[in-house]
Amino acid sequence: MGAFLVYTLAIAALCSHANSQLVPAIITFGDSTVDVGNNDYIHTIFKADHPPYGQDFSNREPTGRFCNGKLATDITAENLGFTNYAPAYLSPQASGKNLLLGANFASAGSGYDDNTAELSHVIPLSQQLQYFKEYQSKLASVAGSKNASSITKEALYLIGAGNSDFLQNYYVNPFLNKHYTVDQYSSILINIFSNFVTSLYGLGARKIGATSLAPTGCLPLARTIFGQHEKGCVSSFNTDAQQFNKKINAAASQLKKQLPGLRLVIFDIYKPIYDLVANPKKYGFVEATRGCCGTGTVETTFVLCNQKSGTCSNSSEFVFWDSVHPSQAANQVLADSLIIQGISLVA
């Protein structure tokens, strides 16, 4: 009953602002879970600029999102009253009045560790921060210095990172996993996270939401490549993710004590995604062990998930779109969870 009441109050608060935005802008950093097309404009194989990506988006065309449709952050923006999405910063749309909506600096394949991004030739988090500083100057030119400062302070900042650091770097990089334990590497990432939040705070950010790690051992790619001798999810990966999540929540608590006026929420995406995988029928899904694209076991990016690989007949029945990323239907479930968890940031 308590959870239902919280959910009802959250929905009521959002609905009461149906014709207005609860925040003036949304600023996003991170990886493929939140990238809306920046990788379309750089030289990397980590792109979603081709079918079947985007097949269920409003224009039925690929948008650079690693999904068949909307990301959880897109749906969250709609819940906050936005009728248009903040543009990918490297896109032509990131100019003029569109900058008033915010900007998305995320890059698929990136992470907290800049070395993760370098392995994939994508935009590291440190560069994303530099782009944000550049954006602030452009915003001041469009809105005026006073209004730009107000937008910066009242905007919602979202950070979605960390999964790539483990799946695309630590677990497959012998230089790392032979020299650092998982616990040590997690601490390195947490230190980067804390410094990043502190830098954002110094640039005017006050409302920041960052995602926890997903249950990485339950992703189809992880099951296929690392779980040959284990039924179900790769338990060690999930344990690593849970330990990281404890650390990032502790770091967030410490940052709020150190930085006056900071609102910082760690969005738990571990539990909702794990629940989707463990109990798909509860949420109306049929398949939770593989993605919709191709065999759904290893397909992602243009190398494997493309027009020739084929897709399932009904993506809304699948928890995962490709071997790593949630489907739009699953992202809707995640967004519903974010409403409850993040209401303190925008209320």
TrEMBL record:
MF-aspect GO terms: hydrolase activity, acting on ester bonds
Superkingdom of this protein's organism: Eukaryota
GO CC annotation: apoplast
InterPro entries tied to this protein: GDSL, GDSL_lipolytic_enzyme, SGNH_hydro_sf, SGNH_plant_lipase-like
Keywords noted in UniProt: Signal
Coiled coil location: none
Keyword Signal on entry: yes
Signal peptide: 1-20
Entry annotated with the keyword Signal: yes
Family listed: Belongs to the 'GDSL' lipolytic enzyme family.
Name recorded for this polypeptide: Zeta-carotene desaturase
Lineage: Eukaryota, Viridiplantae, Streptophyta, Embryophyta, Tracheophyta
